[in-house]
Amino acid sequence: MIKQSILITGCASGIGYCAAGILKKRGYRVFASARNPVDVKRLQQEGFESLQLDVSDPQSIHEAFDTVLTATGGQLDALFNNAAYMQVGGILDLTLDIVKAQFETNTFGAMELTRLALDVMLKQGHGRLIQNSSILGVMTVPYYGAYNASKFALEAYSRTLRQELRGTNLHVSLINPGPIATNIRQNAYTNFQATIAQRENSGHYTDAYLNMKEAYLKTPKNGNKLACKPEAVVKKLIHALESKHPKIHYFVGWPAHLMAVLQRLLPERAMEWVVSNVT
What we know:
Blueprint: E1 5-8, H1 14-25, E2 29-34, H2 37-45, E3 49-52, H3 58-72, E4 78-81, H4 96-124, E5 127-132, H5 145-164, E6 170-177, H6 184-194, H7 196-199, H8 206-217, H9 230-242, E7 249-252, H10 254-265, H11 268-278
Helix pairs in contact: 1-9, 3-4, 4-5
């Protein structure tokens, strides 16, 4: 029996690492990619077929993808675009360079990998393209403007792709997690310190930033009672990979389900009131 092949980005830790491990045990041929060569070496030592892939670097994307195709004889059954990071900061403090960096990782890299995989999958007649989006891809919260926008763009791109693939045996799904117990918030805090905190150019957001740092960004990854474990995301991923009729959206965790329902049902001003009180 030929193993189903899947390329996963962002496997150094968190959701990507969890997905790689579970799918490998499930019998998939997993290509677990990571940006840092140190993480690639560690993954290889753990028995993964791991390769370096920086989703913000087009050359790295193409080289890694060619490596995968060489290993599989030109086939690829699934792609899970997972790599991302969270840039926080008020709109006034988000310079063009900061926003570009957010999109390069969260959106443009996923788009290019999807395009490359699409060419292969159309020729072979099947494939699964799965994007790890966010609940912030269907709703917005303040001080996450760059992240919100990057995920909204990925949503629109993926919905368009679904429309273009009607009548084929290719499936496109979006996973929309709410809070997940990973390092994303701690990494967001580190990134905030290296970007926004170095150049806050107004005093307009001072109180908001203080609240974020104390109540959210500094919270231990397992300290958020609403956070699901990465395995909850992988459960949805498996359904998207193996179901004859995969869903368009997979919301993960009750906060994500609740906010998605409210986003659909409430008038915009009412939803803004809910978000302002929740956040």
